[in-house]
UniProtKB/TrEMBL annotation:
Its cofactor is Mn(2+). Signal peptide: none annotated. CDD domains: M20_Acy1-like (cd05666). The keyword Metal-binding applies. Coiled coil: none annotated. The lineage of its organism: Bacteria, Bacillati, Bacillota, Clostridia, Eubacteriales. GO terms for molecular function: metal ion binding; N-acetyldiaminopimelate deacetylase activity. This is Amidohydrolase. Keywords: Hydrolase, Manganese, Metal-binding. Pfam families: M20_dimer, Peptidase_M20.
Length: 387
């Protein structure tokens, strides 16, 4: 397949995915489409792993090492407001995070590698469901992903609006944060707004807690270690002229290591319960782990950087980029085996594309970087599994 035909195929795949978005664990049509494309390439395809997940294998030569190339496949619950001719046909759902582009990139890499066969070893192409809620990687692992499809390493990519189109960046260690959710339920004693002395005001108590939680970052954390505590919801059962009985505070925390996650949880619980106790109120504290931090292996980063430089040039590769506090379900895979996630830039200001933020109703993937992403993964395989 020549370059022009290859680029047309990539765009055809991507636009199909964009028009037919499916959310977590409902990606049945998406999975069917992917499986057919992989089967048409002559790959060995395994389906229904972790629900709608797929693993396709390609072995070339007699090399014994095995690496995984992973993409997410789910969309988000958002009504698209874009004006292009391939907008979502599934109302209330859209590919607003670029997983349509990620899938296409990995399909493109599979196409290149099946044709070139310029490596020695085995590549597993992993199409993971349910990245957005942070459940798909665990579902695939629970379904025996690593037992049935052993891998030495795993590699992934996420698009990044704001970065120059086609540039690639990564870093060793934590690159994307964990996401832990919390709920703090405070039960005071309601009273008339004119008589606060007759109650135990949970709004004042909750406000003390919200402010005190911020001291964990400023006074309990090493300033050189990034972490975030965000209170995002403040819910009461009161009315305008009555002090409520109940207040619920919800939010999340972000960090890069289990040790920091543990510190945040312990300190938040002590502070919340302590403030409630001194004010004579009851407290229920809940803390759940939603996303693992994405922590890159230094060895895998070196391979990814070398491959990226071979494709886009040294000046367009950053091997020590800033950390991003958003979360990625890829991190759960990296708790099991070494690997590396890279960012690929989407923004081309001169063409007016790739600048809309992720999870925006007008977001659209930049078709001009599809071939670059596919070539990156193909080159990574060639570098990591040389003939």
């Amino acid at each position: 397949m020549n370059n022009e035909d290859f680029e047309k195929q990539l765009i055809e795949w991507r636009h199909y995915f964009h028009m037919h978005p499916e959310t977590a664990f409902e990606e049945k049509n998406t999975s069917e489409y992917i499986a057919k494309a992989l089967t048409d390439m002559g790959l060995e395809v395994h389906r229904n792993i972790g629900g709608t997940g797929i693993v396709a294998n390609l072995t070339v030569g007699d090399g014994k090492e095995v690496i995984g190339i992973r993409t997410d496949i789910d969309a988000i619950n958002l009504t698209e407001e874009g004006k292009h001719p391939y907008t979502s046909q599934n109302h209330g759902k859209m590919h607003g995070c670029g997983h349509d582009g990620h899938m296409t990139t990995v399909l493109g890499a599979a196409k290149l590698l099946t044709e070139r066969k310029n490596f020695s070893g085995t590549v597993r192409f992993i199409f993971q469901p349910a990245e957005e809620p942070g459940k798909g990687s665990a579902a695939m692992i629970k379904d025996g992903l690593f037992e049935h499809f052993s891998m030495d390493e795993i590699y992934g990519m996420h698009n990044m609006p704001g970065m120059p189109a086609g540039s690639i960046s990564t870093r060793s260690g934590g690159i994307m944060g964990s996401e832990d959710n919390f709920v703090i339920r405070i039960k005071g004693q309601g009273s008339h707004a004119s008589s606060p002395h007759m109650g135990k005001d949970p709004i004042v108590i909750a406000s003390e807690i919200v402010l005190a939680l911020q001291t964990i970052i400023s006074r309990n954390m090493n300033p050189s270690i990034p972490a975030v505590i965000s209170c995002t919801e403040f819910i009461t059962d009161g009315i305008h002229n009555a002090i409520p009985t109940n207040v619920v505070i919800k939010g999340d925390t972000r960090s890069y290591s289990p040790e920091v996650q543990k510190l945040l949880e312990e300190r938040m619980k002590i502070i919340s319960e302590g403030i409630c106790q001194i004010n004579g109120a009851e407290c229920q504290f809940e803390y759940t782990h939603e996303f693992a931090p994405t922590v890159n292996s230094a060895k895998c980063v070196d391979i990814a950087v070398r491959a990226a430089q071979n494709v886009v040039g040294e000046n367009n590769v950053n091997g020590n980029c800033e950390q991003w506090m958003a979360s990625e379900d890829f991190g759960t895979f990296l708790q099991k085996i070494p690997g590396c996630l890279v960012f690929i830039g989407t923004s081309d200001e001169s063409a007016g594309v790739g600048n809309v933020p992720l999870h925006n109703s007008c977001y659209d993937y930049n078709d001009n970087i599809l071939k670059i992403g596919a070539e990156y993964f193909a080159e990574l395989v060639k570098v990591r599994l040389p003939k």
